[in-house]
Amino acid sequence: MEEKKQCKGCGGALPFLIGFVAMLVVGWVVFPKVIYSQKTQPVRFSHKIHQEQGMECANCHAFRDDGSYAGLPKNEKCQECHADVVGSDPAEKVYVEQYAQKNKEVPWLVYQYQPDNVFFSHKAHESFECKECHLEVGKMDTPPVYYENRLSGYSKQTMKMWQCERCHAENGVSNACHVCHK
Amino acid sequence: MGLDRRGFVKIVVGGVAGTLFTPVIWKSLDDVSIWSQNWPWIPRLNKGEVKSKAALSKLCPAGCAVKVKTVGGLPFAVVGNTANPLSKGGVCPVCAAGAQLMYSPARVKSPMKKVGEGKFEAIKWEDAEALLVEKLTALKGQNGKIAAINGDETGSAGEVLSGLLAGLGNSGCYMMPGEKFVAEKGVKLMGGSGQPGFDIAGSDLVLMIGADALDSWGTTVANQKAFAATRPTGGVATAKFVYAGPVLNHTAAVSDKFLPVPPTATAAFALGLANLLINAGAVCSAPDFAEYKALAAKYTAEEVEKATGLKAESMKELAALIKAAKAPLVIAGASFGQGAGALDFVAGASLNVLLGRVGGGMTLLPAAPKAVAGAGASDKDAGSFLADVSTGKAAPGVLLVYEANPAYALPQAGDMAKALGNIAFKVSFSTYMDETASLCDLILPAPHPFERYDDNLNPYGVAKPTYLAGKPVVQKPVADCKDPVDVLLGAAAKLGLSLGFDTYADVIKAKAKALGADFDALVAGGIWTGEAKGGSLNLGASALAKVAMPKADDKTLALAPMSNQAYGSATLATPPANLLAVRDTELSGKDLFVQMNAATAKKVGVAEGARVKLSAGKGELKARVHLNEGVAPGTVAVLLGFGRSAWDEFTKGKGDNVYKILTVSDEAGTGLKVWAGSTVTVAKV
């Protein structure tokens, strides 16, 4: 009888709080680490070195003549300088020997790859700074870790629709379906 | 303090409550919903630069100069090449589907060796080429033991085939039927030589007798553009077009006049017109004019009306139109691009001579230089060859089939397929698993037109010498294929023969050089044109004396195969995209509809929708009846392109194949095999 009385009172709201707090920790600290796998780029590309050479973003990430955006450069562009190893960085050697000389494109991981049903025009967003939407890689010597969602397969940095909509709303741009979904 | 059941439940409830304040549930739900949209079988867009590359598409018989739109290097659409002065940016419905056809499930994906009835196994290219060389080596030097059927009448590949066979001591290189072959015979009968050409753009009245010039005859896209140029929007038409043929087809539908003429009566109709024109004062300086005039006099409009049902008054009105025209042009041919006789051609061409239009409207093209030494003339027909194979008169041990589908697209197709069975080793160079490839012992997959070099010299119908060439649009073919000419040249080298070239690209470069054309400009979408040669023709009166006035027959109907270019060709089944264009009065489910007018249907005792069997020779065709007042009296019209027994899920087993009931006869006086005037019996089933 005495034991039962003790149990009735035991803990009060404490177990509830323990469970509550534990799951808050799991949900906010552990879960984000579990849901994403971490990947590194196939070649340690240093934006910093290239920027120090006086290059600008548009030298490699350029618009085509028809206004479409070329995105990541292909071998054809990289080989303008790196047909052979020209520096001492081992990453350059990896690129030249494993990709350029084998005529194989580098399978770069794209941090903000959008699904096929999204029509995103870089030209229409040209007035924004790249870093307002993209990771600021310009000063990085090593590309940031690529976090891939284990369920959806998309990058952690892939912009969600609500982010697009919020920016459109803030800038007085239509959020009609056909604006992004052609 | 212990943890009892109640305490445990409290922790769980607390945990669940805590979870609600974390992203676990909400993000997981969101991610799962995104995951559910990413099944591996969902096609992914190929992203990259959109480019437009010039190409030569030989999916249609005439070949189209096109621009292939690519994204990231892969074709996704085809448009016409506006720089081409003939097609002027136009493209035919088959070549328009070219990008889709590159990824067709019917493509042969790798070399295949037959291992049983209808069974094949994939083999390596080295093994396939070694097998080909082994078979050719065994029969080298034995004339008649190695033969080839060529379905490409405009490419230099034919020269390589012919040169290879000649080097192997064989002369059996046979062409699939086409109008060029017959027309050249016709020109000979008129005392001339060379391929005839027709200047539609430079004529103010174009009479098409049988020749379906705006859909299947000649360079159809160029013909359509020439037609369109005479019909300025909001303006007055500058030329008249008249179609005299068995069916109110696409050509007839847009022409100023349609005269229903059965396919058995095209020569008689032309001679009837000649008679009317001569009576109206037409004369010419041809040496056989008197003989021609006497012959034509037998074909009065009334006699032609009796034989064909065509009103004499209609013919007289047409003769008046021709007489009034300043630059009339007559084009004669079959309504489906093959099977007409040389006399049909001569009868039509004689009108051009009579009207003084040879050299103007109708031209003669000079003989083209050959790139491959030892290549013979392409004047033997595949139908006669396979007929000889079936009777044992020809007994080849090896047959090479290049871009041809004789098991489907020759008259009495069933017999032709059986004849192929008499040949011990058959090799198919085909892009697609067609009816002939499926009967062959070795299939060597050919690249799609956007994956290969090819050329196109003087497609039938052009008014002056014309040459096009194309290079691959893609870096890597979709299938494990090799250019057939490269394979043949490689085999020749292994057999100790030198044809002078290592690759097809080299052959085409040599051809361009021989013509005086710039290869680089050609493959960039350019065109080379020469000048038609001069010369005159006679009226072909002695040959035309063999033309007989058609006789009405109560038991049979004239068979008019109808071509609709969108539905494919002899070497190509209907592209999947174009199946949407097939009307339910042409094909319903698996039932093909044959068409006849109400009077003809009454005569044979059938009504709309009736199931019928059409028989001719050993062939039978099952179909249903659709009444169409656009079909000539005493004629049954049947669409080409259906009844495929191979290809893909989109076309296989739909409808029936009209080639099965086309019957071959020997043309009086020329000995040519003809089938445009086939007749059939129609019975209800």
Walk me through this protein's architecture:
- The complex is a heterodimer of chains A (182) and B (685).
- The longest helix of chain A is centred in the first third of the chain and has 22 residues, at 14-35.
- Chain A has eight helices and two strands, in the order ααβααααβαα.
- Chain A has helices at residues 2-9, 14-35, 47-52, 57-60, 75-82, 90-100, 161-170, 177-180; strands at residues 36-39, 146-149.
- Chain A has 182 residues and is mainly alpha-helical.
- The relative contact order of chain A is 0.14.
- Helices cover 40% and strands 4% of the residues of chain A.
- In chain B, a hairpin with a 6-residue loop joins strand 1 and strand 2.
- In chain B, 29% of the residues lie in helices and 20% in strands.
- Chain B folds into four domains: 5-35; 112-175 and 369-457 and 466-529, Rossmann fold, CATH 3.40.50; 180-365, Dimethylsulfoxide Reductase, domain 2; 553-684, Barwin-like endoglucanases (Beta Barrel).
- In chain B, helix 6 (179-189) crosses helix 13.
- The mean pLDDT of chain B is 94.
- The radius of gyration of chain B is 29 Å and the shape is globular.
- The chains are: A mainly alpha (182), B alpha/beta (685).
- Chains A and B meet through helix 2 of A and helix 1 and helix 2 of B.
> Which sequence of SSEs, written as H and E, runs from N to C of chain A?
HHEHHHHEHH
What is the helix fraction of residues of chain B, given as a range? 25-40%
* Overall outline of chain B: globular
- State the separation between the terminal residues of chain B, measured CA to CA: 93 Å
The major beta sheet of chain A can be summarized as:
2 strands, antiparallel
